Amino acid sequence: MQAMGFERILGGVCAPEGFLASGVSCGIKEEGGLDLALVYSEKPAAATGVFTTNSMKSPAVVLSRERLLGGAARAVVVNSGNANSMTGARGVDDAAAMAAAVEDALEIPAGQALVASTGRIGEYLPIKRVVSGIRAAVEDLNPGGNTDATKAIMTTDTYPKELAAKMEIGGKVVRVGAMAKGSGMIHPNLATMISVITTDLDIGVDTMRDWLGKAVEWSFNRISVDGDMSTCDTVFMMANGAVFPGGYKMTEEEAGLFFKTLCWLTGNLAVALVKDGEGATKLLRVVVNGAGDDTEAVLVARAIGNSSLVKCAFHGGLPAWGRIAAAVGSAGVPVSAEKLSVAIGESEVFSGGEMVEFDPGELGLVVNRDEVEITVDLGQGSGSAYFMTCDLSPEYVEFNAGDKSLWRDPVER
Amino acid sequence: MQAMGFERILGGVCAPEGFLASGVSCGIKEEGGLDLALVYSEKPAAATGVFTTNSMKSPAVVLSRERLLGGAARAVVVNSGNANSMTGARGVDDAAAMAAAVEDALEIPAGQALVASTGRIGEYLPIKRVVSGIRAAVEDLNPGGNTDATKAIMTTDTYPKELAAKMEIGGKVVRVGAMAKGSGMIHPNLATMISVITTDLDIGVDTMRDWLGKAVEWSFNRISVDGDMSTCDTVFMMANGAVFPGGYKMTEEEAGLFFKTLCWLTGNLAVALVKDGEGATKLLRVVVNGAGDDTEAVLVARAIGNSSLVKCAFHGGLPAWGRIAAAVGSAGVPVSAEKLSVAIGESEVFSGGEMVEFDPGELGLVVNRDEVEITVDLGQGSGSAYFMTCDLSPEYVEFNAGDKSLWRDPVER
Question: What domains are there in chain A, each with its CATH number?
Answer without folding.
Answer: 2-275 (3.60.70.12), 283-392 (3.10.20.340)
